[in-house]
Amino acid sequence: MAENPLPQPQILPERTWTGTAVSVGVAHAVVHVLKEHFDEPDEDSIRPEDVEREMQRLHAALEVTQREIEHLQHAMGAESGGPESEIFETHLLILQDSSILKQVEKTVREQQVCVDSAFYRFMSRHMEKLRGLQDAYLRERYLDIKDVTQRVMRHLRGELLQTPMFDEPVIIVARDLTPSDTVALDRSKVLGFALETGSALSHAAIIAKSLAIPAVVKIHGICEHLHSGDSVLLDGEGGILIENPTAETLARYRSREEQAEKREDVFWDERHVNATTCCGHEVCVGANAEFVEEVKIVQDSGAEEVGLFRTEILHLENPNATEDEMTAAYTKVVSSLAPKRVVFRTLDLGGDKVDELLAAEPEPNPFLGWRGIRLTLGRRDLFRKQLRALLRAAAHGRVGIMFPMVSGVQEVLDAKALLAECQSELEAENHPVPDRVEVGAMIEIPSAALSADHIAAEVDFFSLGTNDLIQYTIAVDRLNDRVCALYQPTHPGVLRLVEMSVQAARRAGIRIGICGEMASNIELTPLMIGLGLNELSVAAAQVARVKHAVRKLRLADCQTLARESLTLISAEEILTRSRNVARTSYPELFA
Ligand code: PEP
Ligand code: MG
């Protein structure tokens, strides 16, 4: 159990909160409550004699915020020079701007409203002005003001005062965690996520699995109830969070963990052995990744490749990265993992991975909007920079370049034309680039599966992005609690699209694999292998388990299961049949 040494236990009542388990593991630590998404404060009126007190509150909040930013600046070693330093300097300058104090005081005094509302209104007006501007530099200032406003608002409300920054490992408690929130965290100090909203397919869950830390979502009410510094135990298997765990609870968890470790020895020791079914059919089990620091975890996991490297986090960490900086980051991943193949997915921004600098206007339906390859083909400067960086990194190992959110062959043709242009430019500039890089398409939109034969003629491989394929096929938002019961990976409609894609790949003689979360589910391994998916890219923490599962299967049984499943009308029935094959073939993984 990941633990952070905690202060002497106090006699506080233990309380158990229930949610949905999305990433396994157990952690015991203090929480850090993130309240990023503040609502507009109420315009509470005040008495004239309260003006001074209100202004003192603002002064205090500004001071704490200043200390917090200085601390952050120091912690990141960014006191002088470098882009981080500039960001913090800008934030400090905003805080020290005397016109803010003057204007806010004027509003508080003249309109007799609380300082929270006066401050918020003043800063929002500025943010709105900047947000609509074309100039990228000024639009970026919008984010600076937003960040500072959020910090000050939190301190005005007295939130986070106990642990403004976390120097010690913590469990993050939040309503939701967007990719940009994740970027802002010091991930080396995060032991788990406990969230009020989200689903198994939300970005936070995917990241937790990548980092091999526990995560529980849909724990209603914790943000209000818990305060930074509270002690909790997070159980990512049982889907519970225990506030103020007693010594007995901790002992029970320790002993459970010892038993689990013994069980895991069964497959952990053989994780570097190939995943070949007992009848000799080879399956490539790879890992999904998105952080450069994950390379070590991937190496140790037993993964034979990185079947999906999501590049959005690297982008969000440094949206204005130069081509050289991007090349350096990608090269680090490629050369650390060589000779293993790394499949980089080009930017899949949009949907839930919004880059606020690019998305000037909020979209009514982000998942049906400017996302993935649509966005990059519309922002060729950005796309070109990424493709050039990927081609340069490809000189250091085996790289695949994969396009997300492909809806039909034309997007692939356009992207390939740009890739060819980048290749010629780099050659002309004497950059070492391989003669040819493997190109792939994600099949995650029903129209792509339905026209898979057209796309297959243009690429070297397909990877099924079932997280999205399921969402778009069944018209069920992958992040929406209300409809999560309808999110069925074994829905007959989904299976038919998978089958169609496999057949198109076979006819064209290209490879096909799967990189959606479904690939990590060992109950579905027999079905996926039976359907003809020979490359499974899964969360790094699941690689050893999935490889073990594959070794226990017989291809003929899996094929019979898949053939029969394609005739069934019920998602539950298909799931049950695959589960039965799984449980009989490798009962030890379900013990
Ligand atoms: C998918 O859709 O299955 C996928 C792997 O991509 P993401 O989850 O990043 O959308
Ligand atoms: Mg997707």
Tell me what the structure shows.
The protein is an alpha/beta fold. It is 47% helix and 15% strand. It contains 23 helices and 18 strands. The strands form two sheets. Strands 1, 2, 3, 4, 5, 6, 7, 8 and 9 form a nine-stranded mixed sheet that branches. An eight-stranded parallel barrel has the order 11-12-13-14-15-16-17-18, surrounded by seven helices. α1 packs antiparallel against α3 and α3 (98-111) crosses α4. The chain starts with a strand and ends in a 6-residue tail after the last helix. Phosphoenolpyruvate (PEP) is lined by residues 308, 310, 348, 444, 465-468, 515-516.
Tally of helical runs: 23
**Form type:** globular
Low-confidence stretches: 160-164
Q: Characterize the largest beta sheet: strand count, sense, and whether it forms a barrel.
A: 9 strands, mixed
> What structural class should be given to the helix and strand makeup?
alpha/beta
How widely separated are the two ends? 19 Å
Which bin fits the share of residues in helices? 40-55%
Which cofactors or ions or other ligands sit in this model? phosphoenolpyruvate, magnesium ion
* DSSP summary, beta strand count: 18
* Nearest-integer average pLDDT: 89
Radius of gyration: 25 Å
What percentage of the residues does DSSP assign to strands (E)?
5-15%
